[in-house]
Specification:
Blueprint: H1 18-26, H2 31-47, H3 60-72, H4 77-84, H5 88-91, H6 96-103, H7 105-115, H8 134-160, H9 163-177, H10 184-204, H11 208-222, H12 224-236, H13 238-258, E1 264-269, H14 272-280, E2 295-301, H15 304-317, E3 319-320, E4 326-327, E5 340-345, E6 351-358, H16 359-367, H17 370-377, H18 386-402, H19 406-417, E7 421-425, E8 431-435, H20 440-447, H21 449-453, E9 455-460, E10 463-465, E11 477-481, H22 499-511, H23 514-531, H24 537-540, H25 542-551, H26 557-566, H27 571-578, E12 602-604, E13 612-614, E14 626-630, E15 636-640, H28 644-647, E16 655-656, E17 658-660, E18 669-678, H29 683-692, E19 697-705, E20 710-719, H30 722-733, E21 738-743
Parallel strand pairs: 2-6, 13-15
Antiparallel strand pairs: 1-2, 3-5, 4-5, 5-6, 7-8, 9-10, 9-11, 12-17, 14-15, 14-16, 18-20, 18-21, 19-20
Helix pairs in contact: 1-2, 1-3, 2-4, 3-4, 3-9, 4-7, 4-9, 6-7, 7-8, 7-9, 8-18, 8-19, 9-10, 9-11, 10-11, 11-12, 18-19, 22-26, 23-26
Length: 755
């Protein structure tokens, strides 16, 4: 079978004619389908009579372009017709029944599904304001909930028929290519939607032909200055780059020909946004010389054995870069992508990526799930690809479990579908995909809810590990269980990565005795109120609790306490909603009063409440120098630092810093702080370590990444005095990548950065 189209060859026309669309359709569909497309065009033309776009063109041009892109992807006639009609229900008097009668149930269902996308907005943008403007706050919360519900409905429509999303992606691609006609504010909003939802979705479905231009176009409007700089830099080097790629292509082609391997070799530079992401990961000024694999060669052969043969020839021709080989043929990506990747040093020691795949693999790599409907039209396939089927099944399962909480559904979707991924193995050799940073507990709940509830330990590659250990690609995971479901530990919520696992854990505690949860929530809130010097829960009053419940969309104060008890709400969320976390500087002593360890309680620094117990072999007492040892299943065991067992311990990574808790009557103050830093792996960990070095607890932390490559961390610190806060700020400022740290509501204090 010939390739569907050349790489990166999706049409760029923004005003195609109906003749051009029909010509594209005629290339692979029968005459009857061509006539159906023409009839759909005439129907849309009549329905949208008099409507024009911001550019001044008839609205029909947008519909033809959407259908044209779908035809270039070789979608079936149903998809192309739905593309031509996708705005009829939303923008004209045409109804679902009209479409059903004229073009069939499938077209009507797809058009209705596309209409549900609406103005999705950003559920994941955090709408947070201070206690003032409470009415505005409620309106923003309501808007966020509505947007989350729109996202949920859209993905359920996609679960019924994935063509819904493909039509919407084609629609979004044309909108992005004509975005210059929109006002600035709307351009920014649409571009951000595109980057954060539509482009990742296209990638999740494997449609690189749409994902790549969407990312580059969003880059153009969200970071116009870096975009222009990068375009200019690449334009200056284009001639030499093209000559280099041509030489490498010819050299590799000759090598393969000499071995009797029929192949197609092409070369390219990475697309703009891909290069930009590599640049902003560096904590230094942008430098193209730092991009590791700016160039790529692609080799297409006829069979899988030839892929591995070509890999050997490539490594014999050029020096391979250690640890840069990836075998996506043996372990495909969850979107069905299969290929061999390696990076080699070519002439002038330039690192160049080489991708090797078969023709069928190439079709899936470029067109993703869209190839299914082309195959179906040709009589080659009547079932969806397995990865897509698994994803749809997961969507439906989450919908059943999380309904009616649309926000949870969207959080689950974004966490499990749009983050980086690792691929691990079950004991039977099954490949399981998890988000980066996932733990054995996430793995257990991904396999089955009951397995998660019965988990008591885990082995990774045959070695016992703690349940909060992050797993990595290639790890083989074995879950140790009890015969009966004892349920999860409450501390699991602090380290599980997947929203699915978090929800299952919360559901477990929610199903426990309601009175027990209410009592636990009452105890938690009462303790926090007393620590903040606001009396007791009884003194807070029933009216305040009723207002709190209403603000959280709950019916009664007991519902608040129950959710606090089983972990659906955190103390920080409740106290923040009550407006009790604002601390004025004059209320905090300049010098922290001395602490006197008398209670015998132990705290794990920088982590929060964890299960601890005193070791029986060395019997530490308050005042002793102590250290914590992470056990397999029983939390943290506390030893004296001079304990012979600790001195002989080889697994030093299991040792954590602990200290005796201060007196209960020592006043601690919750201080919200804001940290601006360059986004990077390990940033949050390094900040937490810096905070814990001064024996300060971080009761909450919230991280938000920005399109320009930096991140904002909002944390609440429990401090005893201004001097202690100043020391903590100094430690945070020394963390690599931190640009500023300040108390919430204050101007930023910049930090000098060095390369």
């Amino acid at each position: 079978m010939t390739l569907l189209s050349a790489p990166n060859d999706l049409p760029k026309e923004t005003s195609p004619s109906i003749e051009l669309l029909l010509q594209e359709v005629e290339a692979y569909l029968p005459e009857a389908a061509v006539q159906t497309v023409r009839r759909a065009h005439d129907f849309a033309e009549q329905a949208h009579t008099g409507q024009v776009r911001k550019s001044g063109e008839p609205y029909l041009v947008h519909l033809i372009a959407t259908g044209y892109y779908l035809a270039a992807l070789r979608l079936d006639v149903t998809s192309i017709v739905a593309g031509l009609l996708h705005d009829t229900i939303e923008d004209t008097t045409v109804t679902h029944d009209d479409l059903d009668r004229e073009f069939g149930h499938a077209v009507a269902r797809i058009v209705e599904g596309v209409s549900k996308f609406g103005e999705i907005g950003h559920r994941h943008r955090i709408w947070k304001v201070e206690q003032q403007e409470s009415e505005d706050r409620r309106q923003r919360v309501d808007r966020a909930k509505l947007q989350a519900e729109n996202v949920r409905k859209m993905f359920l429509a996609m679960a019924e028929d994935p063509r819904v999303v493909i039509v919407k992606l084609a629609d979004r691609l044309h909108n992005m290519r004509t975005l210059e006609f929109q006002p600035q504010e709307k351009r920014t909003r649409i571009a951000l939607d595109t980057r954060e939802l539509y482009a990742p979705l296209a990638g999740r479905l494997g449609i690189a032909q749409i994902k790549t231009p969407l990312e580059d176009l969003a880059f153009k409007y969200l970071e116009p200055e870096p975009y222009k700089w990068l375009v200019d830099m690449l334009a200056e080097e284009r001639a030499s780059r093209d000559q280099y790629i041509q030489r490498m292509t010819e050299q590799l082609q000759e090598q393969l020909r000499s071995q009797g391997i029929e192949s197609e070799v092409t070369g390219r530079a990475k697309h703009l946004y891909s290069i930009y992401k590599k640049l902003v990961r560096q904590d230094v000024p942008m430098d193209l010389n730092r991009v590791y694999d700016l160039f790529a060669l692609r080799v297409i052969v006829e069979s899988v054995p030839e892929c591995y043969q070509v890999m050997g020839l490539v490594h014999s021709l050029w020096l391979p870069v250690p640890s840069r080989f990836k075998d996506y043929i043996a372990v495909p990506k969850t979107n069905g992508y299969r290929s061999l990747h390696t990076t080699v040093y070519t002439e002038d020691s330039r690192p160049t990526e080489v991708q090797i795949r078969t023709r069928d693999m190439h079709e899936v790599a470029e067109f993703g799930v869209a190839t299914h409907w082309y195959y179906k039209e040709q009589g080659r396939s009547d079932s969806l690809p397995q990865p897509l089927s698994d994803w749809i099944q997961a969507l439906m399962q989450w919908q059943n479990e999380l309904n009616p909480d649309a926000a949870e559904f969207v959080d689950t979707l974004k966490m499990d579908m749009f983050t980086g991924q690792v691929f691990v193995f079950s004991p039977r050799g099954d490949i399981i995909d998890l988000p980066t940073g996932a733990t054995p507990v996430d793995f257990a709940y991904r396999i089955h809810t009951e397995l998660g509830h019965r988990t008591i330990g885990a082995k990774v590659n045959g070695v016992m590990v703690s349940l909060d250990t992050p797993v990595h690609t290639g790890d083989r995971i074995q879950i140790l269980t009890t015969k009966t479901a004892n349920g999860p530990g409450r501390d699991w919520l602090s380290f599980v990565r997947t929203a699915n696992a978090k929800q299952k854990i919360r559901q477990w505690f929610k199903r426990q005795d309601r009175e027990e949860n209410i009592a636990r929530g009452r105890e938690i809130l009462d303790t926090q109120l007393q620590k903040l010097g606001h009396g007791t829960l009884n003194e807070l009053g029933q009216a305040a609790m009723m207002e709190l419940a209403a603000g959280l969309s709950l019916r009664t104060p007991d519902d608040v306490l129950a959710q606090l008890g089983y972990g659906a709400l955190t103390p920080h969320q409740v106290l923040n909603r009550l407006g009790l976390l604002r601390v004025e500087e004059e209320d905090i002593p300049l010098v922290a009063p001395p602490t006197v360890p008398t209670s015998g309680d132990v705290r794990v620094l920088g982590v929060g409440d964890l299960l601890t117990r005193l070791a029986s072999d060395c019997s530490p007492a308050p005042g002793d120098a102590i250290v914590g040892y992470i056990t397999r299943n029983r939390g943290v065991t506390v030893h004296r630092q001079d304990c012979p067992r600790i001195q002989a311990e080889r697994e030093t990574e299991r040792l954590v810093t602990v200290d005796w808790s201060p007196r209960d009557d020592q006043q601690l103050y919750s201080v919200p702080v804001i940290i601006e830093a360059w986004d990077r792996d390990g940033l949050l960990r390094d900040v937490a370590i810096a905070v814990s070095e001064d024996r300060v607890s971080m009761t909450s932390v919230e991280a938000q990444s920005h399109p320009d490559g930096h991140a904002t961390l909002k944390a609440t610190l429990r401090i005893a005095g201004i001097d202690q806060l100043s020391r903590v700020f100094s430690r945070i400022e020394r963390v690599k990548g931190v640009m500023s740290v300040r108390r919430q509501g204050r101007g930023p204090k910049p930090v000098e950065q060095t390369a």
